[in-house]
TrEMBL record:
Membrane topology, record value: Multi-pass membrane protein
Name assigned to this protein: Solute carrier family 22 member 6 isoform X3
Gene: LOC102524086
Protein's UniProt keywords contain Amino-acid biosynthesis: no
Lineage: Eukaryota, Metazoa, Chordata, Craniata, Vertebrata
Subcellular location: Basolateral cell membrane
Keywords of the record: Membrane, Transmembrane, Transmembrane helix
InterPro entries assigned: MFS_dom, MFS_sugar_transport-like, MFS_trans_sf
Length: 542
């Protein structure tokens, strides 16, 4: 009897799985609220300089006399005249509407609060000379995620999934709520970094805790559901941001649900598979019997014993040896080649995905509409990518989606800024292709690593890939030189990464390698087939 047989004996997919696993998936969906939260909390409304205090702002001509105009006739955001410039209106297209000297906005700014009543940008006046500061807070948050991956991955294996999950929910709820009460930008960045660290905890443990309580036949369905978690979370965020536009209220709204998940997690059941991997058979038995009771299988649970568990562990590879270190992974040339191909691909995906998604305001349409478009496009592309991997294979799907995403984004970059419909169409298609490509490479990665090192290999690979998400928001600063330059960078790097995919082996229809030796045998077999094909070509031509 294997561990999978034990899960089937205590109910398989029954009441317990139908309660705990949806709660874990829902918490994962809400985690993604924090990833793109700054699109709304740090949005930049239309603004211009505030005239001196003695100016009568009720008279439009008095206000306009202080404001230089750009070539489109709109007030310049970061300059005002040193003295009011009155007279007939100057033709649109001139840099200013007078030859008067200008100065910076020493009295602050006037904001258009119709869309965003309050953001971090308007509350702390992070504009003009300070406008790069908010772009630093998102890399700080992503750096927190990277640190959290390093911390919670180890803690989940040592302390257990449930303990790490409880601690993560508590810390995320507290750090997110503390962000609401910050009154300066450095304190805000500290809270965002702490939130980034704790976001990693539920991301890691929720997946493991769900997967380890499912029978083998149901595990692919879990992967499909988890693929929709980011889309669901981002849809929630768009609606919540529209209903609650004040940044402090929105921050509180996305943090409070984790207090509820904290309470729910106290009733979660620890992974019996994790207990068994440590040899703690009494706790394994207790967890299985508790699940059997919830599933209405008390009689089946009563049949279990420590002796039966010992036999099942001997029959199945549930305990396994210690996971190899990263250095042991890289000593093998076959594994090293896979690792050096997968990591750059995931780096590129994270870099372009987060860079594109965090620049919604740059497309010139309503930000809530942009959020909906960028989110809903994921579903059809996710399904198309899934079907393509099943029909034409992983590698062709990966190359095609990666190449198309780069082409769409580069096309968006060359379209004039006033062609808003074409720009947002190309950007949306590019975002959909990037999402499809990310889902493909995620599945591809799990199939490439041998079973004996799959957990450690995937964990290390994803952790290193998150490095790509840290500098991606900073690329938006290059728009000061040319407005579409960030899009050129995101698109070009995707196209440049396509040749790397060609170096990876195809896994469709292939059995998953259990050991490094299986991986090497598969590589040698394919090399031998290529040599035979090359030898047959001259014979056929003669």
């Amino acid at each position: 009897m294997t561990f999978n047989d034990l899960l089937l004996q205590v109910g398989g997919i029954c009441r317990f799985q139908q309660i705990q696993i949806p709660l874990l998936i829902l918490s994962l969906s809400l985690l993604y609220l924090h990833h793109a939260l700054q699109n709304f909390t740090a949005a930049i409304p239309t603004h211009h300089c505030r005239p001196p205090a003695d100016t009568n702002l009720s008279k439009e001509e008095d206000l306009g006399a202080w404001l230089p105009r750009d070539r489109h006739g709109q007030p310049v955001s970061c300059l005002r005249f040193t003295s009011p410039q009155r007279g007939p209106p100057f033709p649109i297209g001139t840099a200013t509407n007078s030859t008067g000297t200008t100065e910076t906005c020493s009295d602050g700014w006037i904001y258009d609060n119709s869309t965003f009543p309050s953001t971090t940008m308007t509350e702390w006046d992070l504009l003009c000379t300070h406008k790069t500061l908010p772009q630093l807070s998102q890399p700080i948050f992503m750096a927190g995620i990277l640190a959290g991956n390093l911390i919670f991955g180890v803690l989940a294996d040592r302390l257990g999934r449930q303990k790490v999950l409880i601690w993560s929910y508590l810390k995320l709820a507290v750090s997110g709520t503390c962000t609401v009460f910050t009154y300066n930008f450095p304190a805000y960045c500290v809270c965002r970094f702490l939130s980034g660290i704790t976001v990693s905890g539920p991301s890691i443990t929720s997946f493991s805790l769900s997967l380890e309580w499912l029978p083998i036949h149901a595990q692919p369905s879990l992967g499909l559901l988890l693929g929709f978690a980011p889309t669901t979370g981002q849809l929630f965020l768009g609606g919540m941001a529209y209903a609650v536009p004040h940044w402090r209220h929105l921050q509180l709204l996305v943090s409070l649900p984790f207090f509820v998940f904290l309470i729910c997690s106290r009733f979660f059941i620890e992974s019996a598979l994790w207990y068994s991997s440590l040899g703690r058979l009494e706790l394994t038995l207790k967890a299985l019997q508790r699940v059997a009771q919830i599933n209405g299988k008390q009689e089946e649970g009563a049949k279990l014993s420590v002796e039966l568990l010992q036999m099942s562990l001997q029959d199945g590879p549930t305990t396994g040896g210690a996971q190899p270190s990263i250095l042991q992974l890289l000593r093998n040339p076959t594994v090293r080649r896979l690792f050096l191909c997968i990591v750059p691909l995931l780096l590129v995906h994270c870099f372009s995905f987060f860079g594109l998604f965090m620049s919604l305001q740059s497309f010139g349409i309503n930000i809530y509409l942009a959020q909906v478009l960028f989110t809903t496009v994921d579903l059809p592309f996710y399904i198309l990518g899934f079907l393509a991997t099943k029909s034409i294979g992983r590698r062709p799907t990966q190359v095609a989606s990666l190449l198309l995403s780069g082409i769409f984004i580069l096309t968006c970059a060359v379209i004039p800024l006033d062609q808003i419909f074409l720009r947002i169409t190309m950007a949306t298609l590019g975002k959909g292709c990037v999402t499809s490509s990310m889902n493909c490479i995620s599945m591809y990665t799990g199939e490439l690593y041998p079973t004996v090192m799959q957990q450690r290999g995937v964990s290390v690979t994803i952790t290193l890939a998150n490095v790509g998400s840290i500098p991606s928001p900073l690329v938006d600063m290059t728009s000061e030189f040319y407005p579409s330059l960030p899009l050129f960078i995101y698109g070009a790097i995707l196209v440049a990464a396509c040749p790397i995919t060609v170096l990876l082996p195809e896994t469709m229809g292939q059995p998953l390698p259990n050991t490094v030796q299986d991986l090497e045998r598969r590589r040698k077999k394919k090399s031998g087939q290529k040599q035979q094909e090359q030898q047959m070509v001259p014979l056929q031509s003669s």
